[in-house]
């Protein structure tokens, strides 16, 4: 099956699929049908993907990537092989589509003076409230507490 996303075409020779028996819905068929799909896409050897997209795709794949540089997608969601196959290709398309998006760089901004002042005022207020919760000796300090009367 040929994948085409935003002008990038990935040929069927770059995607290998295998079928297996699976658990769950349709897994206990009488005739033992291979309805599960395992899709393998070698990111390292894919010439149609630019280098920056390839590196983002590797980061997005995470645990779904093996040591050989292949993204391995296993789908057992549907009862039919056709449904599982469509789901696997859909997941691969979504991953590649996400990798094609350029990351937006953060624009550095400064905290306004008024906001900084409000934050410091709030900190002073909270500090005062917490200080007033303690005993009189804590509030004034040991030198200012005066004589202790029993």
UniProtKB/TrEMBL annotation:
Pfam families: RF-1 (PF00472). Residues 8-133 form the Prokaryotic-type class I peptide chain release factors domain. One of its GO terms (biological process) is rescue of stalled ribosome. Residues 107-133 have a biased composition (Basic residues). Residues 105-150 are annotated as: Disordered. GO terms for molecular function: peptidyl-tRNA hydrolase activity; ribosome binding; translation release factor activity. NCBIfam families: PRK09256.1 (NF006718). This is Class I peptide chain release factor. It comes from Desulfococcus multivorans DSM 2059.
């Amino acid at each position: 099956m040929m994948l085409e996303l935003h002008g990038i075409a990935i040929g069927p020779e770059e995607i290998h699929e295998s079928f297996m028996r699976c658990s769950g819905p349709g897994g206990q068929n009488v005739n033992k049908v291979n309805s599960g799909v395992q899709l393998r896409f070698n990111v390292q050897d894919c010439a149609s993907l630019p280098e920056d997209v390839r590196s983002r795709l590797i980061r997005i794949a995470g645990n779904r990537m093996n040591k050989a540089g292949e993204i391995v997608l296993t789908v057992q969601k549907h009862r039919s092989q056709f449904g599982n196959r469509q789901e696997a290709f859909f997941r691969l398309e979504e991953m590649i589509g996400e990798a094609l998006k350029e990351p937006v760089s953060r624009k550095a901004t400064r905290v306004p003076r008024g906001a900084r002042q409000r934050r410091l005022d709030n900190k002073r207020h909270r500090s005062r409230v917490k200080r007033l919760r303690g005993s009189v000796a804590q509030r004034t300090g040991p030198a200012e507490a005066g004589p202790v009367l029993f």
